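Can you please make up a protein's amino acid sequence together with its fold in token form to help me picture the idea?
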Amino acid sequence: MKTILDKITEAKRKEMVRAKREVPVEQLLNGPFFDRECISLKNELFKEEASGIIAEYKRKSPSGGNINIR
């Protein structure tokens, strides 16, 4: 019996295979964001003016469906 995590992992693997077929690596390498400087999450969180909070807003849960619908 597959768990919800197994199902999510399987779906993501299929999604990645499909995405790799649709967009060649060469296109990504030549894209406008490839050479941009990476932002360090660690450095950003340690800035004096940073709140140190990492948050995510979710409308749906993979296992529970809609969350707090009004």
Observations:
- The beta strands are 60-61, 65-66.
- Residues 4-22 form the longest helix (19 residues).
- DSSP finds three helices and two strands in the chain.
- The first strand starts at residue 60 and ends at 61.
